[in-house]
Amino acid sequence: MSESKKKSPPEIYFDDIGEGNVIVLLHGFLESTEIWKDFSKKLSKNFRVISIDLPGHGKSGVINEIHSMDLMAIEVRNILEISGINKCVMVGHSMGGYTAIAFAKKFRRFLKGLILFHSHVEADNEEAKINRDRTVEIVENNHFDFINSFTPSLFAPQNVEKFSSEIKHLIALSKKTPKEGVISAIKGMKERKDNLDTLKRLNIPVLFISGEQDSRIAVEKVKKQAEVNEKVSLEILKNVGHMGFIEAKEESFKLIRNFAQTSFSWNKNN
Predict the structure, then answer these.
(1) Is the pTM of this model over 0.85?
(2) Whose C-alpha in 90, 106, 159, 234 is 20 to 30 A from the C-alpha of 74?
(3) What is the dihedral of CA 66, 71, 113, 238, to 10 degrees?
(4) CB-based burial of residue 133 (10 Å sphere; 0-12 exposed, 13-18 middle, 19+ buried)?
């Protein structure tokens, strides 16, 4: 099993572990490659796993005032190209899912399959955009206070106490994200394009993994999006909020592993 940790210009960090067919893991807002550590280790027994710190997060630098989803998708493409990867299954959590569907629109040729993990494909509506602007103001005033209150809200209410140690760890990791990186990501999410048509046109397997109690992305919204293409399927995690990789770790891992195996097999026969 090979393993490397590197940066690509301009200062985008990624992990590269294992051998074989490639799975690319993209984290969400205020997260980093750290959230995938256990998943990467287990998946690397059967796959080559690339996990990336998106711009302004983890060990990757802030590269623009606005980290648009298109910009992030281009950085992901750059990493795949310098790593000699031309086909992969891509998994995106939350903001990573926004990046993944932007990637699918621009660079479809790289994809064997796509998982949108607590994510969706539509643009922000006007109310959501106003809320993004308010969040920027809050972060500018005190981004540590924002992180302290934001992170627990991502979990289903009954899971906050259950996963209190994991939440503390996530908060500590999130506080490593510089204020500029937080704001650049919020602005990028606010300006992201609607990609429902992209989803309709994709001719590869797509899987939504959603939390039954996700307060950020309502499962009813995802259900409607999953109906636009016969190659799209949906798995709903019961008693889970927005953080299935913690709240339903084993189930989420199995869904990702099995989908990747099926996607590579499906593509061989089509």
Answers:
(1) yes
(2) 234
(3) -10
(4) exposed
